[in-house]
Amino acid sequence: MVFVEEMPLGRNIKLPPEVREAFARENERMERIRVFWAEHKAELLERYPDQFVAADVETGEVVDTDTDFLTLHRRLTAMGFPRDDRVAVEFMRTNPYVAW
Amino acid sequence: MIRGYFADSSPYVELLVSIPVLATGYQKAAFLVDTGATMTVLHPRAALGSLGIPEHELDARRWDQIEPVAGIGGLTPCLRVSATYVFEHDDGEYDAFEDDIFVAAITASNREAPSLLGANVLRHFRLTADYPRLRVTLE
Fold it and tell me: What is the rounded distance in angstroms from the CA atom of residue A92 to the CA atom of residue A99?
């Protein structure tokens, strides 16, 4: 989460260093999550097909799983994980996602 | 240049979003680049997981004004609110825009749906979706 008192609007703007650093930390957080799933998704897909998996991206521990995202989210919230942070959620899809 | 990526054969872009009436600060979230969408739509998975919006805020029964939005699965009740969108260039500069966003209520069919980056935001950019090379850019 990044707090910015007043965001300048427009194209090709330069942000104050403290805001850029905060945004960079958010990018690093997202990158950690991406790397985690890239390294572990194949294994977790075999163990938890077609389930949402909540995993601790630091330790690799599977925190919880469920076939329904909202049910899983409610349990994570009750456990004190209000949003994707150290614990990230991904769906272990066995069939390609099809939208039309 | 803003770089996106392909996932599940579809183009995505990550950006920072602030929705002051529902959540504090800026949060990063992934949006499916949807040239067929008139408006940007935040679906429950990103709303709850990425932006940390409390579940009760996505209950349409709480909303004073509901906008039914037509999508693939039929009409979805949405809350239209103001948002700030911040895109990061690969050279360290940023683009920041204020515009509305449709926040979708939680329904039985949209819990897994990706959030959609629609024309109200895409109109600021030249979009390239290079499917053979799996590259997505906004300029």
Answer: 17
The answer to whether ipTM exceeds 0.95 is no
d(CA A73, CA A76): 5
Quick: pLDDT tens for A16-75.
Answer: 898 899 899 888 888 888 899 999 999 999 999 999 999 998 888 999 999 999 999 999
Residues of A with Cβ-Cβ distance to B106 under 8 angstroms? 70
Between CA B10 and CA B33 the distance in angstroms is 8
- Residue B87, classified by CB atoms within 10 Å of its CB into exposed (0-12), middle (13-18) or buried (19+), is buried
Mind giving me the DSSP string for A22-42? HHHHHHHHHHHHHHHHHHHHH
Going by the DSSP 8-state scheme, the letter that residue B127 receives in this structure is: E
Helix ranges restricted to H, B18-118: 44-49
Calculate how close chain B gets to A36, using CA atoms only, in Å.
16
Residue B16: closest C-alpha in chain A: A23
CB contact under 8 A, B52 and A96: no
Q: Show residues of chain B in contact with A24, CB under 8 Å.
A: none
- How big is the A-B interface in CB pairs under 8 Å? 90
pLDDT of A44-54, one tens digit each? 999 999 999 99
Question: Contact at 8 Å (CB) between B119 and B33?
Answer: no
- This prediction's pTM: 0.91
Contact call for B50 and A12, based on CB within 8 A? no
Cβ A89–B49 below 8 Å, yes or no? Answer: yes
